[in-house]
Specification:
The protein is an alpha+beta fold. It is built from eleven helices and 17 strands. The chain has a six-stranded mixed beta sheet with strand order 1-2-6-3-7-16. A four-stranded antiparallel beta sheet has the order 11-13-9-14. Strands 4-5-17 form a three-stranded antiparallel beta sheet. The radius of gyration is 23 Å and the shape is elongated. The protein starts with a helix and ends with a helix. About 50% of the residues are buried.
Amino acid sequence: MQASDILAKLVGFDSVVGTPNGEIVEWIGAYLKSFGATVDILVGPEGDRSNLFATIGPRDEPGYILSGHMDVVPANEAGWAGNPFVLRVDGGRLYGRGTSDMKGFLAASLAAVPMLAASPLTRPIHLAFSYDEEAGCRGVPHLIAHLLELCQTPLGVIVGEPSNMRAILAHKGKSAARVILKGRSGHSSRPDLGLNAIHAAAEVLQAAISTAHSLAHGPFEAEFEPPYSSVSVGTIHGGQAVNITPDLCKLEVEARAISSADPATLLTPVYEAAAALERLGFQVQWEELSSYPALSLPRAAPLAGLLTELTGIEPLAAVSYGTEAGLYQRAGLEAIICGPGDIGRAHKPNEFILTDELAACQAMIEALGRRCLA
């Protein structure tokens, strides 16, 4: 199968984040087994979705991991010119949900499998396909926890997020949380008898704003845009009517951290502001939504040099969005980002990838395979 044919099949699986993914896992697993790959299906704690790990070549030798996620964001936005889960071809553009982010990389990897399987590899190529990356990299930690049971310590991990086939050395870390404030409802004419959860949320909101302003003054890491860590509130919901004292308010807040900072620690002032409201009679819940560390690969690292040779392009220093690469690095592995497509097309109507980008990615993977020959 050509990469575009495989992509059409993958896009056809409605593998939206947070939903069961058995169908796409089963299809990929069967495809890989047809070429003699060793395939492990690792069921996550949710019970209805799984990671997939496959090996081509000798499993008892150190090799390279091609890492990608099988889930996609929902496609409920207005503006789609066709069914987002049916690949639409228009010239050199292939439209569909997940084409750039990041089923294009999965398709290019799978298209390279016949060449890899037919080669006398002395070092293996592994495929590590995860679930629920779009919910804050929730699936891949369960795969990483079993990695050394599945293979020898890898020489490096290539995370195929859309990067225009230019390797990326670093990204920010992230931590996100939901704050739930429960007060006491009542008639708005008697505010003294209620506990206004929206008013209380203002304390939490102000803590987030103050922290964000403080972080804008440094510390700095020039390779990022912006070159400092950030905190922001993304959602706030509460209240029923203007004449009812609101007894419930929910906020969602996130931190994006430069490599020298811990994203969860950046949210401490927000957490403390929320916890202080308990003294006023409010019930406070703090729910962690997602957390992953920053990535920081030295330019002199062997993996950075390898990707420069494979792509013919000097690596980009950093991006501000996050990926699973930071989690692999925290596990002690060299990790880098490099994949087809453009992050600017992701999470939008009429997401697309170019056939030339798929071909370039497949060529890179096949070139990596030739580096693993006897």
